[in-house]
Amino acid sequence: MPTIRVELMTGRTVEQKRALAAALTEATVRTLGGNASSVDVVFFDIERHDWATGGELWLDKMAAPPASAG
Amino acid sequence: MPTIRVELMTGRTVEQKRALAAALTEATVRTLGGNASSVDVVFFDIERHDWATGGELWLDKMAAPPASAG
Amino acid sequence: MPTIRVELMTGRTVEQKRALAAALTEATVRTLGGNASSVDVVFFDIERHDWATGGELWLDKMAAPPASAG
Amino acid sequence: MPTIRVELMTGRTVEQKRALAAALTEATVRTLGGNASSVDVVFFDIERHDWATGGELWLDKMAAPPASAG
Amino acid sequence: MPTIRVELMTGRTVEQKRALAAALTEATVRTLGGNASSVDVVFFDIERHDWATGGELWLDKMAAPPASAG
Amino acid sequence: MPTIRVELMTGRTVEQKRALAAALTEATVRTLGGNASSVDVVFFDIERHDWATGGELWLDKMAAPPASAG
């Protein structure tokens, strides 16, 4: 403990996850104290067709032409 | 907020998820009020070999012949 | 299955949760088919000091005077 | 209810999950009473590059030579 | 790892949780091997008004007179 | 997105959560880029009698006298 569970859009590289795991662990120990070895970070990749905001899949949001398009 | 997380058996199409995300968001706004843009829906596909009820994997439940079979 | 897990800001009444559980279950069966008895809905109340967006607790966001205030 | 959600490192076989689902369900009914049919077990496979402890991905921990290596 | 997260209806005693944590950990080590010290069990108490099945809160299901009542 | 969900032992102050939410959001934006406004952090307080490691509740681990005690 603490356990940090991160849901993020699919597509991040292992290198980005390596850096984020280190950064989140460091931020936690810096803020709460305690030992880094007790901090777990778990990543969950979410596909764009599995995440909706405002009732619309991000798959569709990201496929739509920008609002300003003529 | 609210964040709605849906675990469902693997096999639903993107179209079904599109419809379900919209329906869940609409039901939430209709019931609680607030703005659809603040509602997130996240889907988690669960394989039949990753879900058990009564101690039995759904993989096995669905492979077994119907009880009435001769 | 499906299991629907809803995180929402603390403060909703039992009556609101009663209505939301029914509405989410109905929306799920209407959209995916299947039997309502197989749909579970679980609510998680989140305190304003336990939810942050943009690095700021909602406790603080909601305590701040509206931007337009003189 | 109860719902038991198990996060485990990717790589377990269906047979291991079959046995673990049965064992967890039996342990729950033996300890809490109630009916096995009301116990759900859900498995989540986590890749080694998606799980970090102490700020280090298990992908890297498991790739590093044992400490005692000359 | 593995991490076992158990959602159960509010009302279990610390003694029941003590026994269930031990039983689930033992079942996991017996089935998957590995070390008990790497197994975490986390309990989440769910109120009857926060859990619905078939669109009906368990608060209401448990308040209703048994079907056979005259 | 990303959504960061932090389970931590009960007892942290609002001030600690304020600082941790900011630190985790900053670490995420620094590492992945993107906009802080799209980062959500949610805290879940876990009681010592609801968290077990190695089959033993932390309630009991923390109540036991230190190993070296005469």
TrEMBL record, chains A, B, C, D, E, F:
Enzyme class: isomerase
GO MF annotations, alphabetized: isomerase activity
EC number(s) per entry: 5.3.2.6
Gene3D superfamilies assigned to the protein according to its UniProt record, in alphabetical order: Macrophage Migration Inhibitory Factor
UniProt keyword annotations, A-Z: Isomerase
Native source species: Leptothrix discophora
Protein name in the entry: 4-oxalocrotonate tautomerase
Ranges for domain 4-oxalocrotonate tautomerase-like: 2-57
NCBIfam families, A to Z: PRK00745.1
Alphabetical list of InterPro entries matching this protein: 4-OT-like_dom (IPR004370), Tautomerase/MIF_sf (IPR014347)
Family: Belongs to the 4-oxalocrotonate tautomerase family.
TM stretches of this protein: none
